[in-house]
Amino acid sequence: MKSLSQTSIIVADRKSESGLKRRDIDSRYKRWLECVDRPERMRLERMGVALVEDAFYRDLVFGTGGLRGKLGMGPNRMNFYTVGRATQGLANWLNSNFDVPTVALCRDTRHGSEEFVRRTASVLAANGIRSYMYERVEPTPALSFAVRELGCSAGVNITASHNPATYNGYKVYGSDGCQITVAAAEAIQDAIDVLDPFEDVRAIPYAEAVNRGFALVIDESVVKRFISCAAAQSTGIDCSGLRVAYTPLHGVGLECVSRALAAVDVTDFRVVEEQASRDGGFPTCPRPNPEERLALTLGLELCAKIGADLLLATDPDCDRLGIAVPHGGKPSPLSGDELGLLLLDFLAEKAVGGGAELARKVACTTVVSAPMANDLARDYGFELRRTLTGFKFIGEQISLLESEGRGADFLFGFEESYGYLAGTYTRDKDAVVTSVLACELVAHWKRKGFDLFEALRLLYKRYGFWAGSSLSRAYEGPAGTASMSVVMRRLRENPPTRLAGLPVERVVDYAQGAPMPVVNPSGSLLQVLPPSNVIELRLSGGSSAIVRPSGTEPKIKAYLFAKSQTGEGASSLLAEMTGDFDSILGGSA
């Protein structure tokens, strides 16, 4: 394979889909060759033409989730230079907005995470900003907790969450513990855009940052308080008789999850040993995502072998939780929506039993999560708010409640992508607290003689039968962004009039913002969702489809919800909807 360094400009005036000409990509590549150290230069020289185009046709985009991308050389990759440039932009923004800014830092087990977190601390220190860093890998929600606990101006977690091993990320939090707002992300992006990654980044050696008191270790007591806060959300259900299998999928969850479960008397706790190692290569699960059954294979095997009542699986940064329970003679996973609905019903029932006034309680979910949550809200009488996709928006609702003196009214938050939170101690989804609640949920229904699938069926009998699924289509490379834009534009300009034979009664386009969907609004405050590239198709009979580009990968996602009078009818309708959307999305599955 030829490398670009051995090749002249191939097509001088051909433009990539990003708008950069081939010669501009070549120019950027050659500058990196001139500026990087020799080992990195050798890596650049080994890159083929197609790889160079993908790595240099654009810069990594800094959004509300910070940066996320593949590891490697070039401005469209996660590396020492892109992390340094992002941190310099963040530092400039912090120094412009805070008198004495401080930053909490965290990392996961991924390749490059330790190097990147030290690079972040080094750049912050050179800009006069003190950082507080967890001494070892810790969960994402522990970073959100530390920001608020230590009174920091911001937080940075080096993680790519559940992405494959080829990825890493740079997730940024505001002083409220939520991932940064759209406005802050835009301001930081503006600060980054004017920086040259080689000439404008100020840094001092990490050891010097430590010696000068600019890179400090977060005290162990902060982790203990985080775990205590998670365990304190317990409903008091006796879990001592449960047998629980657990896999951290080679990530950071083992310590915090095991300690939180011990605090609520889960003593029969078996770990999937093959996946207990902290290994950023994820050798036993190339896609370490508890949403994917393949990642759960070893956990399901252990669950069956020991006769466990429950399998818990946390993603590498321990903010998402997947579970499986025995049903029909074998352990079977639940979807994110299914667990979210069961937990919402469970917590509402416990609140009623505890004498709480449910009319004051507020639950939150997203516009792409289970529609049946609306039915639960109407039945129990609590308020349900639907935010945009991304747990930061649920975190903002918690902050809003606290600003009104109503923090105790927050009941629960969940999103379909396996993210859940009870309590207000953090502002991000938390697999630690969800592990506690999942154990209590299983124990609750076991005492009644039901497994969780049987409990779901009871919900369906109360509210109607739903079937749901999500489709993802990938659009890789420089042409991918343009292809995604074409798909979304086509849906806007010429949406389907029927899906699975059902009329499309309404098309909701969130691009210009839209009123927040609320069930049982408790006040006169009307919230408007920020503009977002999301399109919703509402079908007759209550079924729906929501389409949006992923915020973390080059994918378009479609969330399909089918409603019927029977489970078989819902499944059949969902299959038809899925077939229709296969042709609408294109791309690669």
Protein traits:
single chain, 589 residues, alpha/beta, six-stranded mixed beta sheet, six-stranded antiparallel beta sheet, globular, disordered N terminus
What's a quick, concise take on this entry?
By secondary structure, the protein is of the alpha/beta class.
General description of the model:
With 589 residues, the protein is of the alpha/beta class. Helices cover 39% and strands 20% of the residues. It contains 18 helices and 24 strands. The strands form 5 sheets. Strands 1-5-4-2-3-6 form a 6-stranded mixed beta sheet, with helices on both faces. The protein has a 6-stranded antiparallel beta sheet with strand order 16-24-23-22-18-17. Strands 8-7-9-10-11 form a 5-stranded mixed beta sheet, with helices on both faces. A hairpin with a 4-residue loop joins strand 22 (535-539) and strand 23 (544-549). Helix 4 (80-97) runs parallel beside helix 5. It is globular. The protein starts with 21 loop residues before the first helix and ends with a helix. The model is unreliable at 1-19 (pLDDT under 50).
Enumerate the spans where pLDDT stays under 50 for 5 or more consecutive residues.
1-19
* Broad shape: globular
Q: Total helix count?
A: 18
Strand line-up across the major sheet:
1-5-4-2-3-6
Average the pLDDT over all residues and give the rounded result: 92
Share of helix, binned: 25-40%
Q: Please report the distance between the alpha carbons of the first and last residues.
A: 28 Å
Main sheet properties: 6 strands, mixed
What is the total tally of β strands?
Answer: 24
What fraction strand?
15-25%
- Specify the structural class: alpha/beta
Radius of gyration based on Cα positions: 24 Å
